[in-house]
Design brief:
Blueprint: H1 9-13, H2 20-23, H3 57-67, E1 74-77, H4 79-91, E2 98-101, H5 108-115, E3 119-122, H6 133-139, E4 144-150, H7 162-172, E5 177-181, E6 203-208, E7 221-225, H8 227-234, H9 244-253, H10 256-281, E8 286-289, E9 296-301, H11 304-313, E10 319-320, E11 330-334, H12 338-348
Helix pairs in contact: 4-5
Length: 353
């Protein structure tokens, strides 16, 4: 059985849109795409009168090398969100198929499924926010086409052991696509599972440049998967998903100076995460600081609403995650600069500005 047998038959059979940029081969005068012959004013607009490459070759090469995959196993889009949406639309028939998630987890999996009118089946994380593989497999139904695993998890911050992912991959073969979201993997002591893609054709891995590479505003994410899955999704992705300025920003981030800066910031986040975790635990009114392998901490408070309002009044915005299962008393605090983190503690200690 091919992994494509899990996909919607009409998507497998469809003829994708062929853009002018895809059809162009060489040339010096471009009169095929109805673009403006004049570039916009300002240095930032250089080249923006032309449609960008659908999948910019230079960036594909850099990311494939970074993630240890072949270029045909990588698809770039507007953040991980677009890849999630593409997977749901390609594999889930409206009103018939389903996805399986483990709440509390990233909300876009369920949002994309509901937009597609696919059912959302839940197998909750254990009380300690670990993944219960047996409970997940017990929740599987024939309708489930996609199983989403977020590691490290958002919003709890904990990782899923590689052995658990391999066990799931074995059990889901021929049944569903296993999608592992590694948005925060750079902040962990764990490695990616992207090296398993060649072993499991139904495994897909989500990566993003928004976190560790400081490019949230550029909106660039990747799906790493079997080449046949990438080819299928390229049928339904918009023809020009990545704006040229965003591509240029990403290329600059992978310069020697950009890599050095990212590495230093990762070091600072890890150091500050440990310091903030200890400092928060020592504060009155803090019930628990959940273990985290991300760039944030989920913190339980005696009076989470009052803490949120106190921080907001001081100009500090954190994430209220009390709507998530098992987190009714929690706020999520991103690790900022040393000065920003110190200010958070100062406000929580009730000190004056």
């Amino acid at each position: 059985m091919s992994v494509l047998d899990l996909a919607r038959a009409e998507i497998r059979a469809m003829q994708p849109y062929s853009s002018a940029r895809m059809e162009a081969s060489g040339g010096q005068i471009f009169l095929n795409a109805n673009e403006s012959a004049w570039a916009p004013t300002g240095e930032a607009g250089h080249g923006c009168n032309r449609y960008p490459e659908p999948q910019p070759a230079a960036l594909v090469k850099m990311l494939a090398e970074l993630y240890g995959v072949r270029h045909e196993q990588l698809l770039m889009g507007r953040g991980s969100d677009e890849a999630i949406d593409l997977l749901v639309r390609a594999f889930c028939r409206a009103g018939q198929d389903a996805i399986l998630i483990q709440p509390p987890t990233f909300g876009m999996y369920a949002v994309c499924a509901r937009i597609q009118n696919a059912a959302v089946i839940e197998a909750a994380l254990a009380a300690d926010f670990s993944l219960d593989v047996d409970a997940l497999l017990a929740a599987m139904t024939p309708a489930v086409k996609l199983v989403f695993i977020c590691t490290p998890n958002n919003p709890s911050g904990q990782t899923v052991p590689r052995a658990s992912i391999e066990r799931l991959a074995e059990a889901l073969a021929g049944r569903a696509v296993l999608v592992v979201d590694e948005a925060y993997i750079e902040f962990t002591d764990e490695g990616s599972v992207s090296d398993l893609i060649d072993r499991y054709e139904h495994l897909a891995v989500l990566r993003t440049l928004s976190k560790a590479w400081a490019l949230a505003g550029a909106r660039i994410g990747c799906l790493l998967a079997n080449a046949e899955v990438i080819t299928l999704l390229r049928k339904i992705i918009p023809p020009y998903p990545l704006p040229l300025p965003c591509v240029n920003a990403a290329l600059a981030a992978f310069s020697p100076a950009g890599k050095a800066s990212a590495g230093e910031h990762l070091r600072v986040v890890r150091e500050q995460r440990q310091w903030m975790s200890a400092a928060l635990r020592a504060l009155p009114g803090v019930r628990e600081v959940l273990p985290s392998q991300t760039n944030f901490l989920a913190v339980r408070f005696d009076q989470a609403d009052q803490v949120y309002q106190r921080l907001l009044a001081a100009g500090i915005v954190v994430r209220d995650v009390r709507r998530y299962p098992q987190l009714a008393d929690a706020l999520r605090i991103t690790i900022g600069t040393a000065e920003e983190n110190a200010r958070v503690l100062q406000v929580l200690q009730g000190e004056a500005a």
